[in-house]
Amino acid sequence: MYYRRKAEYEIDLKDTVFYLLRKWRGILVTMLAVAVLMGGYTAWSQWGATVNEKSIASLKKEIAVNQAVINGNNAYIADQEARLAANADLIAAEEQKITELKSTRQLLVQQLEACKARQAGGERSEDLAELVIRLDQQIADVDARLTQCDKMILALQKEKSTIPDAIMDIRAASKKVNTTNNTLKAQIAALQAVGLNPKDVAGKTVVGAVLGLLLALVVDVVRYLADRKVRSAARWQLEWTVPVLGDLHGCPLKKNAVDRWIDRMAGEKPADEPLQLAMTAAGIRNCAQEGAVLLVGTADQAAMEQLREKMVPVMDGKGPALEVTGNPLSSPEALLQVKDRQILLVEEAEKASFRQVQNLLDTLARSGAKVLGVVIL
After folding, report:
1. What is the pLDDT of residues 293-350, one digit of tens each?
2. Are 354 and 9 in contact (CB under 8 A)?
3. pLDDT of 253 over the 50 cut
4. How far is Cα 302 from Cα 323, in angstroms, rounded to an integer?
5. Could you give the angle at which helices 126-193 and 53-120 cross, rounded to 10 degrees?
6. How is 311-344 classified by DSSP, letter by letter?
7. What is the distance between the alpha carbons of residues 321 and 314, in angstroms, rounded to a whole number?
């Protein structure tokens, strides 16, 4: 007889959820541990790069010196531009003066030519001779002044031509200094930004808590899937067709309010032992035929003996006798004892693995034993 309901292992979602809920302490500790680690590491890394006030003060001092250089360059440029405008005005004034001097010279030359024409006409007088000399002298003075004005204009034009180049050089130097200042300001901003950031630390702590929760859930789910054990009578009924005659496992009364709430949500409560023993006795009387009933299972021999001692007064001599034998999987002698016998399985919750139970059921089926039911301890 094949007692397995399904050939494949079935994952009970409800059982899995309550298994995880009962691991709430480990999950909470993992969450807190990962959260503290991530938050602490973030705070430590930021604290390790705390702002160096001396470095910032040195950078600010350097910026102030560079700014003074820029201000001096700007003042120099303004002065040169003022000189450039003044030179333009001076050149215009000198050109105006040259124009006036040329007009004066032209008049003087006309007067001199008229006097020389009079002399050529035979006029001989001391006044005329003095006038010619005076006119020559005045023309020479005007020529000297024109030469002076030309030199002044050349000097001003030369100076004017050098001022724009000087201004361009100073502006280029100021631009470089300004670029240096921007770099220094960026360095100061970077130093100030690496201080302890409470929001960043809080965010990393929350992320750590979420990661810790996921990690704990994954580990516990893997442990649940790897640890395939009979955890309750409901789980037994889901996996095998062997009826549950008694459920003495129940759940101990928890002191913690969270655990009591989880048990209440799972529908579990402390086992009513007298009632369960009476139900087991009734089930044995209904299913058993003549002959003794062997208590067999993966449970400890002492646990099965204790169950038999509790069942004897409940049976009160009504029904088959109860005997305890060893696990048929343990020795050939134990296997011979269960051959063609009536069997009451005794399994301990949280201890009996699916593989052990299935091997035992297969062995009993091959030996011709009749399994009446199971009692979950």
Report:
1. 777 887 778 888 887 888 778 777 777 778 777 777 777 777 777 788 888 888 877 7
2. yes
3. no
4. 13
5. 170
6. HHHHHTT-S--EEE---TTT-HHHHHHHTT-EEE
7. 12
* 179: helix, strand or coil: helix
Rounded Cα gap, residues 236 and 232, in angstroms: 6
Two structure tokens written together for 144: 């000297």
Largest CA distance in the chain: 188
Residue 347, number of CB atoms within 10 A of its CB: 25
Confidence of residue 227 (pLDDT cuts 50, 70, 90): low
Q: Does an H or E element contain 375, and which?
A: strand 370-376
Q: Which two tokens stand for residue 34?
A: 């990962």
Strands annotated E in 33-100:
none
Contact 248, 376 (CB under 8 A): yes
pTM for this predicted structure: 0.47
Q: Which two tokens stand for residue 44?
A: 């430590």
Q: How many Cα neighbours within 13 Å face the side chain of 264?
A: 7
Over residues 188-196, mean pLDDT: 65
- d(CA 333, CA 343) in angstroms, rounded, equals 16
Q: Are 311 and 281 in contact (CB under 8 A)?
A: yes
